[in-house]
Design goal:
Length: 327
Amino acid sequence: MKNNIKVALIQEPPVYLNLELSVNKALQLIGEIVTEKPDLIVFPETWLPGYPVWLDYAPEAGIWGHEPSAVIYRLLTQNAIQKGDQFVQRLKDSAAEHEVTIIMGAHELQGRSLYNSLIHITKKGQSHIHRKLMPTYTERLIWAQGDGSTLNVIEENGYRTGGLICWEHWMPLARAAMHSKNEHIHIAQWPMVKELHQLACRNYAFEGQCYVIAAGCVLSKQDMLDGIHTVIANEEDRIAVELIESIPVDNRELLLKGGSSVIKPDSGYLIEPQMNVKETVFAELDLNKTIEGNLYLDTTGHYSRPDIFQLTVDENPKSDHDKESCS
């Protein structure tokens, strides 16, 4: 197993709601980062083409029949990745060219439903997907539920990497299912990594005796406005801009504040939360540390008590759409 793994976390914002320009930006960032020779490049939750911040901040976003909400949902759907499309292929080509693993958060369209998806692209350009099991609160307005068929852990160079999205980290049985797959590195994607989210990540690291890469984005209201203007094709679509403009903060204010961090298996920080900065965060992981803590705790081994507790995970796809992936 390769013991020293270099990780890069992207806190830069995407080109909001514009899939093509966001992929272009991702490839540009990857091209700049590879000079540092990372093994793993991690993007935040639904970075392609941006977390739906309006659900949290726009006063009328959840009102039935609200036309701006319907239009912005359509724009989001039209800018979601799909199985086998050119955008996923370009990321796969970049991963293979630079021999780097890329973890991308994206809105994924399958059939006519949107999913919140984590795409794991290996150094060989192969892709695997995890779909968020349980959208939280207002997120249920736009995302369908994933299923157990995408609880993936991928092995490369002898170490195993898995991931969960946002509040999946508060689902005890989802954590247990992932711990049973013996991750060395766990990707925790968030819109931004608040203090509560840091607690979840630190708990996960100790519970699983693995490194946790907590990825969050930095995004201002102005970033949202600049991006959405690039996808407005006609006057009818401009009504979606009103939804962003209705967010009651100054255009320069950060609605997502980053907070990306790297947490060691002992729950301490290797990289403290990085707040309010649009930058790339680097860290080097010593995977020997994922072994040492098992002297005290192995939640799927000598500390699991299988004579008392048993976990059953249904990993069968639940629909024809769920049988598909972006690979």
